[in-house]
Write a structure and sequence with these properties.
Elements lengths: L1 E2 L3 E8 L9 E5 L3 H10 L5 E6 L9 E12 L5 E17 L9 E8 L5 H21 L14 H6 L9 H9 L3 H57 L8 H11 L4 H16 L5 H15 L12 H11 L4 H24 L15 E5 L6 H12 L3 E5 L7 H4 L12 H9 L5 E5 L12 H8 L8 E2 L6 E2 L5 E6 L7 H5 L2 E4 L5 H19 L7 E3 L1 H11 L6 H21 L5 E3 L1 H8 L8 H4 L5 E8 L2 E13 L7 E4 L4 H16 L1 H4 L9 E6 L13 H13 L7 E3 L2 E2 L5 E2 L4 H10 L4 E5 L11 H6 L1 E5 L2 H8 L11
Parallel strand pairs: 2-4, 8-13, 8-14, 9-10, 10-13, 15-16, 19-20, 21-24, 24-25
Antiparallel strand pairs: 1-7, 2-7, 3-6, 4-5, 5-6, 6-7, 11-12, 17-18, 18-20, 22-23
Helix pairs in contact: 2-5, 6-7, 6-8, 7-8, 9-10, 9-11, 16-17, 16-18, 17-19, 21-23, 23-26
Length: 796
Amino acid sequence: MTTTDTLTLPLLPLTAGVVLPGMVVTLALETEESQAAATAAERADRTLVLVPRRAAGGYADVGTVARIEDVGALPNGQRATVVRGLRRAHLGAGAADPHGGTATWVEVRPVEAGPASEEAHRLARELRATVEVIFDRRRAPRRVDFFGGVSDPGEVADTAGYWPDLSYERKVELLEVVDVEERLRLVLEWAKEHLADLDLREHINNEVNEGLEARQREFLLRQQLGAIQKELGELTGDEGEDGDAASRFRRLLGERDLPEAVAAAVTKEIARFERMSEQSPERGWVQTWLEWVFDVPWGIQAEDRLNLEEAQAVLDADHTGLDEVKERILEHLAVRKLRADRAAETDEDAPPPDGRRGSGAILTLVGPPGVGKTSLGASIARALGRPFVRVALGGVRDEAEIRGHRRTYVGAQPGRLVRAMKEAGAMNPVILLDEVDKLGGDWRGDPAAALLEVLDPAQNHTFADHYLEVELDLSDVVFLATANQLDTVAGPLLDRMEIVSLDGYTEDEKVAIARDHLFRRQRAAAGLREDEVTIDEGALRSLVREHTREAGVRSLERALARLLRKVATRIARSGDSVVVAVDAALVRELLGKPRFRDEVHERTSVAGVATGLAVTGVGGDVLFVEATAMPGEAGSPGLTVTGQLGDVMKESAQIALSFVRSRADELGCGPDGFDGRRFHVHFPAGAVPKDGPSAGVTMTTALVSLLTGRLVKPTLAMTGEVTLQGKVLPIGGVKQKVLAAHRAGLTEVLLPRGNEADLDDIPEPIRAEVTIHLCSDVRQVLELALEPAPEVAVAA
């Protein structure tokens, strides 16, 4: 090889391709650097040097001196140039643009090839022959056109630059090999490697084709065997124990009363199933789908118990109280009974115009934990005479849990509703959607959105499960949803629900529940016989008042279980057959000191403390508000509110202070009470989050009590939202709050006058023991809540 004199040419770096000598390519000038190089080449006799980038970083040591043949634009408007590779060149040091442009110039030493050796010609012929064999393996037409009449050995090697199977790294390596013989050997090695790969592929394809032919023969033989077995079954009247799978599915299709659309889909899938080879993975998917379809109880209806008296007796035997829920279930039964009677009279069996045949119900039982929402579902199913299925939704975040997976997924299966129908064995079960307020959503979808169709009576008669892909009629299902609170339930889903509130039990109801239900269950759990232990009403009231304070009865049952375990221990140790009579004194002896005591009198014995009412996730509760004042500091805020409060409650505190300051003279606080003072309002139990506007009147009362020195009545609690004008606005959760006040031993409750209609929800025994005052203005609240001002003694 010989080299010519050093030249200085514009440098155009390549980032996505390699241009070899003899190649004519079109380059898109996408960067400013490439555009500057093309412009500079116009001043260098339209010549420049092309250098590819290495995959590991940096540029190659050898580039291609190229000439610009044409300059234009691509269809997208991008500037482009057509270049022809001339020869290789070694790169030298960089140089400044002699014309003062922005392009990068570089010194190059072009490589000129000398006469080709005999070995080079031999290698070129061998490469040509190898390439022809490759084209034969690929069955490519016009294989001789690949070299285009090229005869020079170096040019024959460089035609590998057009090879689409050659990687970018190998093309850069080919460019950097200057010696012709070495370059030919390198390309020949790559061609033989590719030829060996083609031979291996052809060998594998031949084996696969032979396997396919064997499976096809096996499939045909099995089809013939199935036909023979079918003929033998018809002759003998017996298909064996179960026959083959396809015959079993066809027999089930004839036995089951499937809807027309479902029967058509099943018939189509059975035909596909029969045509499939046993080795086909799709055969297993189709068989699983058919199994699931036949597991759905199409056309099977559980017979309703339409006797209202029997249903009432079942509900009363299982649950004490809960009259509103029981009344709603009896209404549902009455409607079904009348519809059945009217249909029998008119002999009508045609479906209604909207396609819904069923008369299901969708009820949502909302209440604190332990009030019996979940167990009520089983009682309702027993009262209706229907099967009962519980679907736990707490923590479910995948939409496919409701609608099922597509059949293309590995391990796909129907959603929980289809599985519930299979478990129930009837198309009209009672399905309990437990903890619907604890549904979540993430990248897998929103299960609450999938429930919109399920809980809509106008849509659920055509419910579509993604796995079954056939319509499922849910209009005859009684859906019961349970939730502790409605704040976390999506608005559209809440709009489809009929809400039934279970706000908690009174003390008398808890005693009755413990006597009639809990005691018998826990006595059996403790291994005690009926003649070994008795319990009187005083002991039960002691458990309710002194050891539990809740809206439901779950803690009461745990306390009763603990008590009976101690009784069982005493009997087991004595070894004698004795009868243990549990009274209030024995409760204190076995369970120790009371866990709860009346602390309202103690907490409100100083000015600035008021008793409020709130609703939490576990029911109603008593809420204390403490207010104090201190000398203010420069730049400090006029009000500090603590107790892990939400923004709404903090705003209510600011409104209460603003109202008191604006009416200071009228309320007897005096304007001097605010000068240079900073107020602090605190809600104890700071670890419990609190929010909402209903503590407005309580905070206002606490501030007025602090400024006037008048104590808040220890027997009174209050709730209501306050405005800057002193108006008392209605709030929610009235029943739960009044029950909480009664549990705490309070005898008076102040409520907004706007909640007067909610008083009907409060049980009559509670209204007889708790005096309820309705107020529309804060001044009425202060007049009822504050004790008279202390008298100041005057010296004689």
